[in-house]
Amino acid sequence: MMKSNPREKGEMKRLHPISILFFCAKGLKEMYGFLPILPLIVLWGPRVTGMEVSRFWLTLVVASLAVALLVLTAWLRWSRFLYVADATAISIEHGVWTRQNMWIQRERIQSIDTTQNIADRMFGLIQLRIETAGGEKPEAVLPSLSAAEAQRIQYTLGFAGASAGLGAGGEVGREVPLAAVGLQPQADSTADRLTPEWHQAAALEAAHSTAGLRQAAASTVQGEGALAPHVGSAAQGAALEDGASRKISPVMLWSYALTSYKTGFVFLILVGIISRLADNWFKDIDLLDLLSTWLGSSWLLISLPILFLLAWAITTLELLNSNFGFRIQRINGKLKVEKGLLEKKQQTIELERIQALQIVQPILHRPFGWFSVRASITGNLDEKEKSFVLFPILRKSETEAFLQEFAPAFHIPETWNKVERSAWMPYAGWPTLIAMIVVVPGLIWIPEPYHWFSLLLPLFVLLTGWLEHRNAGWAQGEGQLAISGGGLEQVQVLIPKRRIQWRRMSQNRMQDRSSRATLRISLAAGKGEQSFKLRHAPADAVLTLLQEASTRQTRVRVPDRLS
To answer: Helix, strand, coil shares of the chain as percentages rounded to 5?
Structure first.
């Protein structure tokens, strides 16, 4: 962000007047901390002033003044919010009491994403979110723009490919003709803005082979866990052309929503909410006695499944809403993702921002052979998570083809090295013993027959530890390191070696005795960094991975013992 050169006021534009509602909502959020002051004024105002005033009328007056102040402030924000975009930068002036000028150069802009909530859709408007390199949040937000104006700004700043999803009526999914917004087609300049490092990576991507060629080359590789070498082919070159597109089918969307592991988290949240309400709002009611009267002595066995079904329904509806119409496209060297029912979002990321890919398979998807593909990226997106969902659910047979179409620099290993069978104890054995010790007080103090539920804890720890040991593994090849892990959710991480920020090998006392070690790889992702671990692998293998994870073959020493 920089201060801009002075511009003529005639060039500056205002947002749509409907954006006053956006500023009202923003102001209400900012005033949230001051809301407790309003009842204090109503209760203590007459006592302090000595005036006898009806509390009803005083409340009405105070609330009216607060609403009037909110609307006036929103109107001032709208009237003093000005912007102008040209081929080099976008300039924004805003602020009521303190005037702020922003000038964002085109070279710093990483993506221009769009969001369209229900209110925007009613008026055919769209919100633009401008993200820059190194920003922890969107550098600028332009609410309530017409579809034509949003596309004009994207096209002017060199993000014409991202505008393909903006409809003339403010609907995501249709393209506004450039002639309708007074623009003429021009050559895309994305290639000019890419770094030499990215051009080198693109050349490596073009050298990838098809699955058949990789399989043939793999037969000449000695040793397990080796990634197949890349052999150039005309077919792969054709696969790198723009225009690839994939949309989730209704059947797969419902399958994804109905089998999500998030149901367990929602269930725990509902249990916490009900417990909180019972303590604070229903103090005079014996909730347990009431449930026993309604449902009998088996009230717990009946109420928990009902609560779980409610959590399942909430999770399903939320995932259907957030992933409705999920579609990914590759346009002008960028990946564009569109999704959402009530709030439609369109997000664009450049391929060079992808630091690693995660092939994820939750335990409920394992019997069906379903996977999801996530990307660890630099910069900030709407989500607070450090990974970006490229596609929520794919069949196993579709995963490799998906990577070839949308992320050809990444490839799934054909074989994996697995940790030793003797590593089962640190993965599952010792944690299970600790869990059994922890549940002893529960068996003593929890009343019958519910104290037996405490035994679920060591069983759960045993299951997750066994799965973690089973899923742990690694593979390596030229240009890429792959790590597999996870318990209830298996995650295979594909990491280009040039994306690794730092790596570390550690050993505790037990690992030192058994010649095992832990490898930790860290990448730049989201607002900070994202780390991946390979635990309790042979120390020699970890040392080899540590050395080969460096693009420069530096000498690395195994620590004697790290606590």
So the answer is: 45, 25, 30
Query: CA-CA distances (angstroms) from residue 510 to 62, 418, 545, 557?
Result: 67, 20, 21, 19
Question: Is the link from the previous residue into 449 a cis peptide, with omega within 30 of 0?
Answer: yes
Question: What is the CATH code for 419-548?
Answer: 2.30.29
Give tens-digit pLDDT for 488-503: 999 999 999 989 988 8
How far apart CA 173 and CA 163 sit, in angstroms, is: 10
Relative orientation angle of helices 287-295 and 299-323, to the nearest 10 degrees: 100
Range(s) within the chain of domains with CATH label 2.30.29: 419-548
Which phi and psi angles does 331 have, rounded to 5°? Answer: -135, 125
In degrees, to the nearest 5, what angle opens at C-alpha 17 toward C-alphas 15 and 18? Answer: 105
Give the pLDDT of residue 527: 59
Positive or negative CA dihedral for 394, 396, 397, 399? positive
Cα–Cα separations (whole angstroms), residue 307 to 2, 183, 273, 318 = 53, 56, 12, 17
Q: Rounded to whole angstroms, what are the CA distances from 102 to 90, 143, 149, 324, 444?
A: 8, 16, 19, 35, 64
Q: How far apart are CA 348 and CA 361, in angstroms?
A: 25
The pLDDT tens digits of the residues spanning 181-222 come to 455 544 444 444 444 443 444 444 444 433 333 333 333 333
- Residues 125, 297 contacting (CB under 8 angstroms): no
CB atoms within 10 A of CB 286: 12
Token pair 């080969």 is found at: 548
H/E run at residue 136: none
Does pLDDT of 118 surpass 60? Answer: yes
In whole angstroms, give the CA distance from residue 38 to residue 66.
9
Question: Is 464:419 a contact under the CB 8 Å cutoff?
Answer: no
| pLDDT for 162 | 46
- CA 339, distance to chain mean position in Å, is 13
Handedness of CA 34, 38, 44, 50 (dihedral sign): positive
Give tens-digit pLDDT for 259-314.
998 898 898 898 888 777 766 666 566 666 666 776 666 666 777 888 899 999 99
Mark out the alpha helices in 50-194 (DSSP H runs): 55-79, 118-123, 147-156, 190-193
| Mean pLDDT over each residue of the chain, to the nearest integer | 78
Q: Which of 55-69, 147-161, 190-204, 378-392 has the lowest mean pLDDT?
A: 190-204
User: Strand, helix or coil at 407?
Assistant: coil
Average pLDDT of span 392-401: 93
Read off the tokens for 546: 């540590």
Q: pLDDT (tens digit, 9 = 90+) per residue, 49-96?
A: 667 777 777 778 888 888 899 899 999 999 999 999 988 899 999 888
The runs of H, that is alpha helices, within 409-563 are 424, 430-438, 440-445, 456-471, 509-513, 539-548
